[in-house]
Specification:
By secondary structure, the chain is mostly helical. The termini are far apart.
Amino acid sequence: MKENLKYYEYLEPITRRLNAPGAGNLVKRKEFPEMLANLDACLDYMQGHSIQREAATYRSRYRLLLTRALTLIRVHFTNSLRSLAADVSQRVGDRQLNDATQSALLYAKFKVGATELKDLAIEIQKRAVLPADAEEGAEPEYQSLMNELYQSYSATRGRLIYPIVSKKVAEIAAVDDSVRDLVAFARSATSFVRGICFDEYDLWGEWFIGDGGIYEFLESVCEPLYDYLRPRTIHETKLTKLCELCTFIQTRYMEYEDDLNDSDDDATINGYKGRKLDFAVLIQPALADAQTRLVFLALAVLRDEIEYYKPRPEDLEYPKKQRKPSLQTNGKPPVLSGRKGDNNDSTDVSTSKTTSALDDDDVGLHTSQLADGADKQTWYPTLTKAVRLLSRIYRLVNVCMPATNCRFCS
């Protein structure tokens, strides 16, 4: 009987301790984890001995006390984080700091008290689990408290990091404005933001176990990049630049990250411990914008320069073209690119006066490269245009956005 009564007798002393003035200081004491373990033991006992008198009442009260204890953790965690951030923010704002000093304040300072607060967060996390008989789609009982920790940390770090990222991306954009190069801006800005994301990912691991909430936070860190890159992308009129942007993102961050994830846990790339961070997820919106704009311009070329192309008389003189011998210049085939000075202007639709998103100077692919051994002088102009267009985009829009209703994929 004495063994069973201890689960009932624990209620009064723990109630007094958790409701006493200054109860928030309990979370700093070494016996606090033991207190939580005792509450768990009492709850398990009441659950397993539900036929005992007043077991349901005691179970309800113990659950309230456990919620109270975990709430104290949340309050202490939030207050400590706010105090730490205020100290760092004041030091950063008091004077101009070099990159090394600023990094020490923003990262090293945040690692000092992280272990203690991480241990407290684990107390909530290990109780935010679903029971075995939970319904599908149900949320763990204490998951909301854990989400509050994620949100508090994300908001606090965001107030420190977001202005730095915004300022740096704006500086890169200001330099880029002098040359108006979409791809150059994307390379510089994305590289900088990626480095910040890896640093923040590593710091997150000092505060929490697992990736819950990290990607939502990093998406907000990437917002300055999207804010500057998206307008440039949707206003780009040259297919070449959009193709370069898609190729850059796909080869540098999509395929590259896959290779990184296949490596060992301790692998480092460019100094970052980044095996578990999937940066491809974060850069996907930028790729989607570029692909959407690329499909839009490609459809415009398809409509205006192929589907609605009005043939000239010389375009329809196929028998005459067949009889006309191919000219040779220094043993080389004639240039059919449609550039100025080309003596075969009539064979390429790009010689028209209208401006095209698929100009030869932009595409970088001449008709002489399209099909070895073919007599391209006899090609109908829209065939040349279509082959050149498809050769540029078919590897870049193989997975199109549903909203585009891409005619190339349907």
